[in-house]
Design a protein that fits this description.
There is one protein chain. Strands 8, 9, 10, 11, 12, 13, 14, 15 and 16 form a nine-stranded mixed sheet that branches. The protein is globular and about 55 Å long. It is of the alpha+beta class. Strand 12, helix 5 and strand 13 form a beta-alpha-beta unit. Bound molecules: 4'-deoxy-4'-aminopyridoxal-5'-phosphate. The site of 4'-deoxy-4'-aminopyridoxal-5'-phosphate has 16 residues, from helix 5 and strand 14.
Length: 294
Protein backbone atom coordinates (compact mmCIF):
# COMPACT_ATOMS: atom_id res chain seq x y z
CA UNK A 1 0.00 0.00 0.00
CA UNK A 2 1.43 3.39 -0.98
CA UNK A 3 0.15 5.91 1.54
CA UNK A 4 0.85 8.76 -0.89
CA UNK A 5 -2.00 7.49 -3.07
CA UNK A 6 -4.89 7.55 -0.63
CA UNK A 7 -8.29 8.30 -2.09
CA UNK A 8 -10.84 10.86 -0.97
CA UNK A 9 -10.39 13.90 1.21
CA UNK A 10 -7.89 14.91 3.86
CA UNK A 11 -8.24 17.70 6.42
CA UNK A 12 -5.16 19.86 5.81
CA UNK A 13 -4.34 23.44 6.75
CA UNK A 14 -7.89 24.14 7.94
CA UNK A 15 -9.79 22.65 4.98
CA UNK A 16 -11.00 19.37 3.58
CA UNK A 17 -9.13 18.97 0.29
CA UNK A 18 -8.53 16.11 -2.16
CA UNK A 19 -5.80 13.88 -0.71
CA UNK A 20 -3.60 14.27 -3.82
CA UNK A 21 -3.30 18.01 -3.18
CA UNK A 22 -1.91 17.73 0.37
CA UNK A 23 1.87 18.11 0.08
CA UNK A 24 4.72 19.08 2.37
CA UNK A 25 8.19 20.21 1.33
CA UNK A 26 11.50 18.41 1.59
CA UNK A 27 12.75 21.15 3.95
CA UNK A 28 9.99 20.59 6.47
CA UNK A 29 11.25 21.05 10.04
CA UNK A 30 9.51 18.00 11.46
CA UNK A 31 10.94 15.78 8.73
CA UNK A 32 14.49 16.85 9.65
CA UNK A 33 14.12 16.99 13.42
CA UNK A 34 11.62 14.16 13.86
CA UNK A 35 9.16 16.28 15.77
CA UNK A 36 5.55 15.50 15.07
CA UNK A 37 2.80 14.04 17.18
CA UNK A 38 0.16 11.75 15.81
CA UNK A 39 -2.66 9.37 16.60
CA UNK A 40 -4.16 6.24 15.16
CA UNK A 41 -7.89 5.82 15.66
CA UNK A 42 -9.82 2.74 14.57
CA UNK A 43 -13.12 3.08 12.74
CA UNK A 44 -15.63 0.25 12.77
CA UNK A 45 -18.79 0.35 10.74
CA UNK A 46 -18.39 4.11 10.33
CA UNK A 47 -17.86 4.76 14.07
CA UNK A 48 -14.53 5.78 15.61
CA UNK A 49 -13.51 3.78 18.67
CA UNK A 50 -12.28 5.55 21.83
CA UNK A 51 -12.12 8.79 19.87
CA UNK A 52 -12.06 11.03 22.94
CA UNK A 53 -9.18 9.16 24.59
CA UNK A 54 -7.11 9.30 21.41
CA UNK A 55 -7.76 13.00 20.93
CA UNK A 56 -6.97 13.78 24.57
CA UNK A 57 -3.67 11.92 24.18
CA UNK A 58 -3.05 13.87 20.96
CA UNK A 59 -3.41 17.18 22.80
CA UNK A 60 -1.21 15.98 25.69
CA UNK A 61 1.41 14.77 23.17
CA UNK A 62 1.37 18.17 21.43
CA UNK A 63 1.93 19.97 24.74
CA UNK A 64 4.81 17.69 25.72
CA UNK A 65 6.56 18.17 22.36
CA UNK A 66 5.81 21.92 22.55
CA UNK A 67 3.71 22.05 19.42
CA UNK A 68 0.73 24.42 19.51
CA UNK A 69 -2.51 22.75 18.56
CA UNK A 70 -4.98 25.41 17.54
CA UNK A 71 -7.94 23.05 17.78
CA UNK A 72 -9.94 22.00 20.83
CA UNK A 73 -10.86 18.43 21.66
CA UNK A 74 -14.40 18.89 20.33
CA UNK A 75 -13.26 20.67 17.16
CA UNK A 76 -10.95 17.73 16.46
CA UNK A 77 -13.77 15.29 17.15
CA UNK A 78 -16.09 17.10 14.73
CA UNK A 79 -13.44 17.19 11.99
CA UNK A 80 -12.99 13.43 12.34
CA UNK A 81 -16.71 12.72 12.19
CA UNK A 82 -16.99 14.90 9.08
CA UNK A 83 -14.00 13.18 7.45
CA UNK A 84 -15.60 9.76 8.05
CA UNK A 85 -18.78 11.01 6.35
CA UNK A 86 -16.96 12.67 3.43
CA UNK A 87 -14.80 9.61 2.75
CA UNK A 88 -17.67 7.17 3.42
CA UNK A 89 -15.22 5.32 5.65
CA UNK A 90 -16.56 1.99 6.93
CA UNK A 91 -13.73 0.06 8.54
CA UNK A 92 -10.42 1.81 8.70
CA UNK A 93 -8.09 4.15 10.42
CA UNK A 94 -7.84 7.86 11.13
CA UNK A 95 -4.42 9.51 11.37
CA UNK A 96 -4.29 13.02 12.87
CA UNK A 97 -0.77 14.46 12.71
CA UNK A 98 0.56 17.78 13.96
CA UNK A 99 3.92 19.00 12.70
CA UNK A 100 6.01 22.12 12.20
CA UNK A 101 6.31 24.29 9.10
CA UNK A 102 9.59 24.84 7.19
CA UNK A 103 10.64 28.12 8.85
CA UNK A 104 13.79 26.82 10.52
CA UNK A 105 16.65 24.43 9.86
CA UNK A 106 17.86 24.27 13.45
CA UNK A 107 16.36 23.26 16.78
CA UNK A 108 15.19 26.90 17.14
CA UNK A 109 11.48 26.69 16.34
CA UNK A 110 10.40 30.25 17.20
CA UNK A 111 9.46 31.02 13.58
CA UNK A 112 7.72 27.70 12.90
CA UNK A 113 3.97 27.28 12.83
CA UNK A 114 2.07 24.09 13.64
CA UNK A 115 0.21 22.36 10.85
CA UNK A 116 -2.60 19.87 11.39
CA UNK A 117 -3.47 17.13 8.93
CA UNK A 118 -6.02 14.37 9.41
CA UNK A 119 -6.03 11.49 6.94
CA UNK A 120 -8.18 8.37 6.78
CA UNK A 121 -8.11 5.08 4.94
CA UNK A 122 -9.69 1.65 4.84
CA UNK A 123 -7.37 -0.73 6.73
CA UNK A 124 -7.52 -4.37 7.79
CA UNK A 125 -5.81 -5.57 10.99
CA UNK A 126 -2.10 -4.83 11.36
CA UNK A 127 -0.93 -8.41 11.97
CA UNK A 128 -4.10 -10.46 11.64
CA UNK A 129 -2.14 -13.65 12.33
CA UNK A 130 -4.59 -16.27 13.57
CA UNK A 131 -1.75 -18.57 14.67
CA UNK A 132 -0.05 -15.91 16.74
CA UNK A 133 3.00 -13.74 16.21
CA UNK A 134 6.64 -14.23 17.15
CA UNK A 135 8.84 -11.76 19.08
CA UNK A 136 12.56 -11.40 19.53
CA UNK A 137 14.46 -9.13 21.90
CA UNK A 138 15.51 -5.69 20.75
CA UNK A 139 19.10 -4.68 21.40
CA UNK A 140 17.95 -1.18 22.39
CA UNK A 141 16.21 -0.41 25.68
CA UNK A 142 12.93 1.49 25.40
CA UNK A 143 13.16 5.18 26.22
CA UNK A 144 11.77 6.29 29.53
CA UNK A 145 10.15 9.35 31.07
CA UNK A 146 13.40 10.78 32.50
CA UNK A 147 15.08 10.70 29.08
CA UNK A 148 12.19 11.55 26.76
CA UNK A 149 8.47 12.36 27.17
CA UNK A 150 7.47 8.80 26.34
CA UNK A 151 3.80 9.58 27.20
CA UNK A 152 3.68 11.50 23.93
CA UNK A 153 2.86 9.58 20.78
CA UNK A 154 5.56 11.41 18.90
CA UNK A 155 7.67 10.53 15.88
CA UNK A 156 10.88 11.05 17.89
CA UNK A 157 10.17 8.13 20.19
CA UNK A 158 9.93 5.59 17.35
CA UNK A 159 13.54 5.50 16.10
CA UNK A 160 14.81 2.56 18.14
CA UNK A 161 11.51 0.72 17.63
CA UNK A 162 11.83 1.03 13.87
CA UNK A 163 15.47 -0.19 13.88
CA UNK A 164 14.58 -3.07 16.20
CA UNK A 165 11.59 -4.03 14.08
CA UNK A 166 13.83 -4.21 11.00
CA UNK A 167 16.31 -6.41 12.91
CA UNK A 168 13.47 -8.65 14.13
CA UNK A 169 12.05 -9.08 10.63
CA UNK A 170 15.53 -9.93 9.30
CA UNK A 171 15.67 -12.74 11.87
CA UNK A 172 12.23 -13.90 10.61
CA UNK A 173 10.35 -12.77 13.72
CA UNK A 174 7.20 -10.69 13.38
CA UNK A 175 8.20 -8.00 15.86
CA UNK A 176 10.64 -7.01 18.59
CA UNK A 177 10.17 -7.03 22.35
CA UNK A 178 11.71 -4.03 24.09
CA UNK A 179 12.85 -3.97 27.73
CA UNK A 180 13.43 -0.80 29.73
CA UNK A 181 16.93 0.24 30.78
CA UNK A 182 16.64 -1.90 33.96
CA UNK A 183 15.59 -4.93 31.89
CA UNK A 184 11.92 -4.76 32.88
CA UNK A 185 9.42 -5.72 30.20
CA UNK A 186 8.35 -2.64 28.23
CA UNK A 187 6.48 -3.16 24.92
CA UNK A 188 6.86 -4.13 21.26
CA UNK A 189 7.58 -1.73 18.38
CA UNK A 190 3.98 -0.50 18.26
CA UNK A 191 1.96 -2.50 20.80
CA UNK A 192 1.65 -2.96 24.55
CA UNK A 193 2.25 -6.41 25.93
CA UNK A 194 0.25 -8.57 28.37
CA UNK A 195 0.75 -12.09 29.66
CA UNK A 196 -1.31 -14.54 31.71
CA UNK A 197 -0.08 -16.83 34.47
CA UNK A 198 -2.48 -18.96 36.51
CA UNK A 199 -5.46 -16.87 35.31
CA UNK A 200 -3.88 -13.56 36.39
CA UNK A 201 -3.19 -10.99 33.67
CA UNK A 202 0.03 -8.97 33.89
CA UNK A 203 1.29 -5.91 32.05
CA UNK A 204 4.12 -3.38 32.34
CA UNK A 205 3.93 -0.06 34.15
CA UNK A 206 3.80 3.07 31.99
CA UNK A 207 7.19 4.70 32.73
CA UNK A 208 8.78 3.24 29.61
CA UNK A 209 5.89 2.58 27.24
CA UNK A 210 3.25 4.43 25.32
CA UNK A 211 0.18 4.17 27.52
CA UNK A 212 -2.00 2.58 24.85
CA UNK A 213 -5.70 3.29 24.67
CA UNK A 214 -6.26 -0.40 23.86
CA UNK A 215 -4.17 -1.28 26.94
CA UNK A 216 -6.39 0.99 29.04
CA UNK A 217 -9.50 -0.66 27.62
CA UNK A 218 -8.12 -4.14 28.44
CA UNK A 219 -7.44 -3.09 32.04
CA UNK A 220 -11.02 -1.83 32.33
CA UNK A 221 -12.47 -4.94 30.70
CA UNK A 222 -10.51 -7.13 33.16
CA UNK A 223 -11.95 -5.15 36.07
CA UNK A 224 -15.45 -5.38 34.62
CA UNK A 225 -15.16 -9.16 34.16
CA UNK A 226 -13.44 -9.63 37.55
CA UNK A 227 -10.29 -10.98 35.91
CA UNK A 228 -7.28 -10.29 38.17
CA UNK A 229 -4.86 -7.84 36.58
CA UNK A 230 -1.49 -6.63 37.87
CA UNK A 231 0.65 -3.82 36.46
CA UNK A 232 4.27 -3.43 37.51
CA UNK A 233 7.94 -3.92 36.73
CA UNK A 234 8.44 -7.48 35.53
CA UNK A 235 11.49 -9.29 34.21
CA UNK A 236 11.81 -11.41 31.10
CA UNK A 237 11.75 -14.59 33.23
CA UNK A 238 8.17 -13.70 34.34
CA UNK A 239 7.08 -13.41 30.74
CA UNK A 240 8.92 -16.55 29.66
CA UNK A 241 7.29 -18.61 32.42
CA UNK A 242 3.75 -17.39 31.65
CA UNK A 243 0.95 -19.44 30.08
CA UNK A 244 -0.23 -17.05 27.37
CA UNK A 245 0.95 -13.77 25.86
CA UNK A 246 -0.82 -11.15 23.78
CA UNK A 247 -0.12 -7.66 22.47
CA UNK A 248 -2.57 -4.80 22.06
CA UNK A 249 -2.88 -1.71 19.91
CA UNK A 250 -5.42 0.16 17.83
CA UNK A 251 -4.32 -1.50 14.59
CA UNK A 252 -3.38 -4.91 16.02
CA UNK A 253 -6.36 -5.01 18.44
CA UNK A 254 -5.73 -8.11 20.60
CA UNK A 255 -3.07 -10.23 18.95
CA UNK A 256 -1.93 -13.53 20.49
CA UNK A 257 1.80 -14.29 20.68
CA UNK A 258 2.91 -17.83 19.84
CA UNK A 259 6.66 -17.48 20.40
CA UNK A 260 9.19 -15.27 22.19
CA UNK A 261 12.76 -16.11 21.22
CA UNK A 262 12.71 -19.94 21.44
CA UNK A 263 9.86 -20.21 23.96
CA UNK A 264 6.52 -21.32 22.50
CA UNK A 265 3.10 -20.49 23.96
CA UNK A 266 -0.34 -21.94 23.58
CA UNK A 267 -2.64 -19.60 21.69
CA UNK A 268 -5.95 -20.88 23.04
CA UNK A 269 -6.82 -18.95 26.16
CA UNK A 270 -10.33 -18.60 27.53
CA UNK A 271 -9.35 -15.27 29.15
CA UNK A 272 -8.10 -13.88 25.82
CA UNK A 273 -11.36 -15.03 24.22
CA UNK A 274 -13.37 -13.11 26.85
CA UNK A 275 -11.24 -9.99 26.28
CA UNK A 276 -11.69 -10.25 22.52
CA UNK A 277 -15.46 -10.61 22.87
CA UNK A 278 -15.68 -7.55 25.15
CA UNK A 279 -13.41 -5.58 22.82
CA UNK A 280 -15.60 -6.52 19.83
CA UNK A 281 -18.56 -5.24 21.83
CA UNK A 282 -16.79 -1.87 22.30
CA UNK A 283 -16.16 -1.81 18.53
CA UNK A 284 -19.77 -2.46 17.63
CA UNK A 285 -20.94 0.27 20.01
CA UNK A 286 -18.25 2.70 18.79
CA UNK A 287 -17.79 3.98 22.33
CA UNK A 288 -16.06 7.34 22.71
CA UNK A 289 -14.03 6.61 25.82
CA UNK A 290 -12.65 3.63 27.73
CA UNK A 291 -14.20 5.22 30.83
CA UNK A 292 -17.61 3.98 29.67
CA UNK A 293 -16.44 0.36 30.08
CA UNK A 294 -17.97 -0.58 33.44
N1 LIG B 1 3.02 1.32 22.06
C1 LIG B 1 3.46 1.92 20.94
C2 LIG B 1 4.90 2.25 20.83
C3 LIG B 1 2.57 2.23 19.89
O1 LIG B 1 3.00 2.82 18.77
C4 LIG B 1 1.21 1.89 20.03
C5 LIG B 1 0.24 2.20 18.92
N2 LIG B 1 -0.26 3.49 19.03
C6 LIG B 1 0.79 1.27 21.22
C7 LIG B 1 1.72 1.00 22.21
C8 LIG B 1 -0.65 0.93 21.43
O2 LIG B 1 -1.37 2.12 21.62
P1 LIG B 1 -2.92 2.22 21.27
O3 LIG B 1 -3.57 1.10 21.97
O4 LIG B 1 -3.31 3.55 21.80
O5 LIG B 1 -3.03 2.12 19.79
Amino acid sequence: MDFENLKGKIFYKNKFIPFKKAKIGVMNHSLHFSASVFEGIGVYNGKPLFNLDHLKRFLVSAKLIKLNCNYSLYQLENIILKLIRLNKLKNGYIRPILFRSSNSMSPDTTKCKSILAIASWEWPKLFNKKNGISLTLSKYPRLEKKIYPIEAKSSGSYQTSVISRIDANKKKFDDCLMLDQFKNIAETSACNIFWIKNDVVFTSKTHSILSGITRQSIIRICKKRRIKIKTGNFKLKNLLSSDYVFVTGTAAEIQVVRKIQKKKYSINSSIINILKKEYDNCKSLGIRSVYSIK
